[in-house]
Amino acid sequence: MLKGFKSFLMRGDLVTIAVGLVIALAFSTLIKAFTDYVINPIVSRLQGGRSVGLGWQLGDDGNDATYLDIGQFISALIYFVIFMAVIYFLIVVPYKTYRARHGLKAFTEPGPVKTCPACLSEDLPVAASKCLHCATDQPPATSPASPG
């Protein structure tokens, strides 16, 4: 039982996902610090005066629970955009390039599919000659009729 658990943990794709999550967490911390200490002061300064941030006080003055802080929302939005760009350009693009060098495709749209008439599964590639699920022979794919 422990041997099976060990082989599950040591699968390549699980290790890849774990490394990706650790890298994402590290980038998240870095970008969070950037938005907290660089972007937030800039957004807060846009309102001017002695305001806590960019927003409105909806209740009693000084009550943080009733302060509508639009600046924090704008900062969170900027954080999200920066974080997604970092993940895309530093993880996804190199991974796609790595997979392409090995003749594999990553993050591509699935090709067209058809439905098996026997078991009604809807995930068969159009060119399949047998069903993945019930192993029945499939009719050949029909090509569009050529004009003329």
TrEMBL record:
Residues crossing the lipid bilayer are: 73-95
Q: Which UniProt keywords apply?
A: Membrane, Transmembrane, Transmembrane helix
Specify whether Transmembrane is a keyword of the entry.
Answer: yes
Record's bilayer topology term: Multi-pass membrane protein
Localisation per UniProt entry: Membrane
What the entry lists under Gene3D superfamilies is as follows:
Large-conductance mechanosensitive channel, MscL, domain 1
From which domain of life does this come? Answer: Bacteria
Where is it chiefly localized? membrane
Q: Does the keyword rRNA-binding apply?
A: no
| InterPro entries given in the database record | MSC/AndL, MscL_channel
Q: What is this protein called?
A: MscL family protein
| Protein species of origin | Streptomyces flavalbus
The organism's taxonomy opens as:
Bacteria, Bacillati, Actinomycetota, Actinomycetes, Kitasatosporales
